[in-house]
């Protein structure tokens, strides 16, 4: 009798295993003469099933076939038929004749299962590699230049929430109710917890169970960019994203794609068509509900909201906005916290413990009442008063009592947040660093490495990032920022922060811009300029003002910018931040006159890598010490007119860099380079040989470059190299033997180098090596004996499998086994 299964998703193998095991149990009860063989068979199937099921699910995610799974399906199917024959055709009157025949067949099947089980180690490795491939595919789908930018995964769930339980329940009921309401708008003023509420809702188990992986979370900005929003949503549908002819075309393609997602065939995509036909596995069509979450929607977005209300069964839209859109019907007004919850949240923020505090309760009550139940105000004000003396609390109480701080309008909230900074002196590095955060675009993550570049020059922080991180933690402690670790390769112990980002609430960003632009004696430390639709600020167009004395200059342009610059006199500028979105971008001609410029940060927030023009102007910046380029195509460095003698650190992220090294003498152009960071540059296949001539280079980090296939054989000539990171270079198969000449190397990181199957014998000559990272080196099955010579090696950070490789050595360093927590919210 043929097996007929109606299945959804990845239940085929699970069902086959369950049925086979049930057949074995029945056979043991009826054919006791085969008990020993059947017991062994049952044991083997039980042990292998969970592992293969994992591979099955990963194959579904990767949309590819898996011969091992099909082989097991075949064995299980054959096994069922054979075991049934044993119970149906062997009876007491013919067991003498039939038993030997069927026993032989059962033993043959058991041997086949045994051979299959002998491949279990390779199978486990395949599972691990496929898990990594899934992660890599998700990363590629999240980057422009590697497949997209900025994805729309749900942000990380808040660590704790207070007073939102009722709102969560009510919203969840509305979303899960099958009625005519397609769009729900959560409306409240800034700082009321809208984003916290909808994020927490998306992490609710019932919501996740209902919508599955079809929750698309997008944060909009004040300037609505329809094509970019649609691109970010489409990336998560795992289909190619094309260029759009217009906003209307983008919306039409979104509707078409979401309809396909909603009616996607929920079948056994990990099995081939012949296998499906062989076992008559039926594909079942069913509607898959979709949830589109639009956060931070501004007034003026009515047309967009109207256009995305597609007629799709099970499709819901959740909107969070400061505005009310009455024409769309269902509005959910979010109110402030009640007094009890407000007190609880304030106590948490202010670090008050009733049994220990000397702050009178009546003072706390007045301040909490003044915050009007707004979570952001409660958190920021509470943190600003944490550990402060009683006199500061009394001053804050007087402000509330005078009525100057009580909250009613959004402007009142803004003033409240402003006054929470009054406890910091103007020259306090914490306050100054907070004001610097206004130089980055709205609703964008701020890379910690970029902040370190800036703050080392502006505020005299040390060069290892310790002071910068200390400041970030203090800002987080005051709830002025949030710090997110989005990749496992960030490690503060080794001063590597490549996976860390800072985010700032919109109101707090506005506060930073407002305070940072205030002038003292007619001067300002920061000049923040936003150019939309080609409209320059009037003061810039007039050309009548004196040269700006700002040390920090930030210029943001939109996708319509034509790169036709006006002249700007900024002789005091030490840091220049350029934020842009257009496909082609010309560096402003005035930068060659910025004689004091020490840091250049150029970031493309658009979808495709930006082609840079006027790049040769950087060669005239004689004082330049650090440069960070993100998501751009870097032209040839050989066109620089002069040497950049002061440039010490170069960081390129998601860039096209192949052309940069052609016909370029790096040693001549960048003679004093100390640090190179190359992150997720997918066109990097091999490093240029002359990089090995950078005699002062101390840190070389190449992370997430999956197409990098080899390192220069002469890499051992980098006599001063102290840190070498090759994290997630999945195409790298080996290290050159010359690596043993890196006598000053203290940190080596080859984590997630999936195809590196051996280490060079000369690695034992790294006599200064103190720390070795080798997590998830899945192909590495042995270590050279010379590693016993690494007398200074103090710690090895690796997974369980690689830890076993060290047990053959008489002397072993400290082994730290890590279970990597991959957080893909950065996508």
UniProtKB/TrEMBL annotation:
**Source species, domain of life:** Eukaryota
Q: Does the keyword Protein biosynthesis apply?
A: no
Record domain RPW8: where:
1-155
Q: Which GO terms describe its molecular function?
A: ADP binding
State the Pfam families in the record: LRR_14, NB-ARC, RPW8
Q: Which residues form a coiled coil?
A: 24-75, 106-133
* Keyword Iron listed: no
UniProt xrefs under PROSITE patterns = RPW8
One GO biological process term is: defense response
Keyword annotations for this protein, in alphabetical order, are:
Coiled coil, Plant defense, Repeat
Give the similarity note. Belongs to the disease resistance NB-LRR family.
* UniProt xrefs under PANTHER family: PLANT BROAD-SPECTRUM MILDEW RESISTANCE PROTEIN RPW8, RPW8 DOMAIN-CONTAINING PROTEIN
Output this protein's name. Probable disease resistance protein At5g66900 isoform X1
Origin species, per record, is: Punica granatum
The gene that this protein is the product of is LOC116200738
